[in-house]
Amino acid sequence: MSEPLILDGATTAKAIRAEVATRTATLKEAHGITPGLAAVLAGDNPASITYVSMKRKACAKAGITSFEHVFGSDATQEEVLACIHNLNADPTVHGILVQHPMPKGLDEDEILAAVDPAKDVDGIGRASLGDLVLGHPSFVSCTPQGMMTLMKRYGIDPAGKHAVVIGRSVILGKPMAIALLNANATVTICHSKTRNLAEFTRQADILVAAVGRPELITGDMLKPGVVVLDAGYNRVEGRGHDVGDCHFESCAAVASAITPVPGGVGPMTIATLLEQTVIAAERSVGK
Q1: Which of 119, 120, 122, 145 is an active site residue?
Q2: Looking at residue 1, what is its pLDDT?
């Protein structure tokens, strides 16, 4: 086969951030509003701290005001819920990101459900997920939405395709499967209990790997011409960078299009978070 199309998430995300900056400037000029994104972080999870830091820097570049509400691992449910209710009522905050996982002892589901759906720019509250299932307009979890945007920008239409999603997490696998279904794909979901995984992956026109197992998917498990979206980021000892859930070289030899790791799906997540925050701000003024 010829060389696959590389779905360059880094370049696409850069373009989206530039568009967000323009829309932010327009909101300021026309309505005197600066989009605001508030992160609620509890505990000391290193990955969460890193993500919030990246979000802060990305907001600054896009002209979005970044608010951070940080709690210790001993935070109570009442304290975090009070913070959420205050942010819901704050007109300077247009988007709320509850960084997960939250420490043990906190009911994360209740906290996420407390976020005003109009400000749930991370798209993982009950109302947002429910609207996604119903096919109603809603904010979609940022990584799945980022993958849908990446396909759209590269002219890949899921309609009529067989999409196989590996992984069933509530922030990635499940919303991605539903988003693909809403885009008129036929969807199969595979997971840790799926038997004979390769039988399903070889049927895929679009394969989404979101299971968190390094290089689980190899080229011999794919059919020629498949579009591969690799949402895995795995640390492997002795490797110079993170690796995906797909073995890139063997999968690229078979695929028509593929996301690299790093530089594929990852950059789209924060870009989508910024874009959805600006959308929330635009909606607040009826735009």
Answers
A1: 122
A2: 59
